[in-house]
Design brief:
Length: about 210
């Protein structure tokens, strides 16, 4: 803990700045700290960490945005829903499953960043997005990659929805190691939340395939 505090104190700090992501999205913070490969946004009493590769620039609130910056029109939920439906059709993944994962992972928020660094609507880890050749900060690429990843997991586990969702949350290594759903509290809770949403959308009492 003392080491972590010392490291935090050593990070360069910007007060009252704005982080501009590669996708054009802007995130305001009370304080911004930059470390080795990480940009930390302190907002109120909490904080989130972003991989430095996702950050295009840091602007001071007292400075105007560069003249060549073009305001990005925010994607509304209907736009995101259409991208999810298209990806579901493209990769043969049930749209109800893809929507349920998006809802539980990020609430359809393209700017969501988890404490572990997962990014966007489908909450892709930067390493996973890189393997899939996608920019996780770009909503269309994020959703496309998330759909492909779910498709691959469904194929790997012979359509078993429980194992697929467990692998999406905890990683395929954990599922393979336990020969099924790992006994992680977070993963079990995640699966149940996704399935509850799925049942509402699909009108089913219970999914098939473990």
């Amino acid at each position: 803990m003392r080491f972590a505090i010392a490291l935090l104190a050593a990070l360069p700090v910007w007060a009252g700045d704005v982080v501009v992501l590669a996708s054009g999205f802007r995130m305001e913070a009370d304080r911004i700290e930059r470390g080795d490969g990480v940009v930390r946004l302190v907002i109120g009493e909490g904080s989130v960490e972003l991989p430095a590769g996702l950050v295009k620039r840091i602007e001071s609130e007292s400075e105007p945005a560069p003249a060549d910056s073009t305001p990005q029109k925010p994607l509304v939920r209907t736009d995101l829903a259409a991208l999810i439906d298209e990806a579901a059709d493209r990769y043969g993944v049930p749209a109800e499953i893809l929507h349920s994962v998006a809802a539980v992972e990020s609430g359809y928020d393209p700017q969501a960043v988890s404490p572990k660094g997962a990014v966007g609507v489908m909450q892709l880890m930067p390493s996973t997005a890189s393997e899939l050749g996608a920019d996780p900060a770009d909503p269309a690429e994020n959703i496309d990659a998330g759909a492909r990843y779910l498709r691959d997991l469904l194929l790997k586990y012979d359509g078993g929805l429980y194992r697929t969702l467990a692998a999406y949350n905890a990683g395929p290594g954990a599922v393979d190691r336990y020969h099924g759903v790992p006994p992680y509290r977070e993963t079990l809770s995640y699966i149940e939340k996704v399935l509850q949403h799925y049942r509402r959308l699909a009108g089913r009492t219970r999914p098939t395939g473990r």
